[in-house]
Known about the structure:
The chain is α/β, with parallel strands linked by helices. The protein is built from 16 helices and 21 strands.
Amino acid sequence: MRYxxxxxxxxxxxxxxxxDETGEVIASAQEEHAQILPQPGWVxxxxxxxxxxxxxxIALALSIAKLxxxxxxxxxxxxxxxxxxxxxxxxxxxxxxxxVWQDTRGxxxxxxxxxxxxxxxxxxxxxxxxxxxxxxxMSWMLRNVPEVGAAAQSGRLRFGTIDSWLMWNLADRIHIxxxxxxxxxxxxxxxxxxxxxxxxxxxxxxxxxxxxxRSSSEIYAKTExxxxxxxxxxxxxxxxxxxxxxxxQLCFERGDTKCTYGTGNFALVNTxxxxxxxxxxLLTTLCYKFGNEPxxxxxxxxxxxxxxxxxxxxxxxxxxxxxxxxxxxxxxVPNNGxxxxxxxxxxxxxxxxxSDARGVLVGLTRAATKAHIARATLEAICYQTKDxxxxxxxxxxxxxxxxRVDGGITQNALCMQIQSDILQIEISRPVVSETTALxxxxxxxxxxxxxxxxxxxxxxxxxxxxxxxxxxxxxxxxGFADWQKxxxxxxxxVE
Length: 495
């Protein structure tokens, strides 16, 4: 039996999972890291803390599995995507906290662009012009962090998404990224799959600070595991988290669709080798690129706040003491009691792209309870998904009959039933619901021959649960109409 490790570096935690040749989970270890919130709209991570947690979970998972480092045929990396790190190439030290994908400070950079420059950037990159993406975060640091500007002047500046930061530290200072992560920076040309000179000029990013763009599945380098697990293990797969989930869900054919429920919510549809430029507020992005094979593209609907809305109930409001409690609390009431919650903490992402929006709780009466707010939170997760799935149907002309789902919230059966009722389609969850890590393992295993090709993977997908909609549910009719009214209340809040 051969084993493949997957390093899943997410928004709130880092996890290392070990899979065998059948795709079964052998061991898993996970550690949370701090969310740094210096002021409203700003979200940061300590890149050194992330690296420390990564080393810890690798060792812990190997210990749990009772495996040696040399038992791993390869390691794949998947990561929170647009989150950006700046570091010094000589010292290897971060020059500033990592600016997280949810952070909105880059809006000041975007506001200075002409409409012509914005339209050109969207065409070249396939992305909306929003502070969500890495380019404005890099530009902000160059303008506002003296250490970053000085490193740029001396040629020592290195920018990267989290995968690049990890590769630099795990593989002896190799500075690389893959096409999926590069496609989320607002700096990569969708057609050439290389950094675009015009986009670099638009945002003022020096090309020598950026990593080399590689495929999503190849042997990049070896990482040296130390201590009791000492071994050199190939790092052979890199995928942004949502692209990894597409691979883990085996969405290899044009039209295949999945939705991942994590800190945010991300629905993707595979468009094959065709670049489909969105007119419905979706993002045109890479799906994956395996070795020398042609790149596969996707349309994506990105929602900023879903699972993190549950964390907000837990950490800021104290309505629940653990995220897992929301299902039982929401189930104590038969409906939302007229309460709607739009968690636009960082503005609205797809399909609206309104950075001026902020979160609202509407429809409150004296009869409203914390249970109604809990249920409204689950419904908000599902209504936001409907917004992007409807946009995908309008874009592709294809109406989904079922949706494959994954991520932590899919363990919440009530939430998934609400999702089925709102979408009026069946919802299907696989046995391995954490398909982000599985996709990274698949990419790495394909590169080293654990699996011969994608056909060898197709038989591994198994369903663990399915939800069927209540026909003509009020959630899909009057509820969705009220949701749209609630969305209107969020707009034009930030001047």
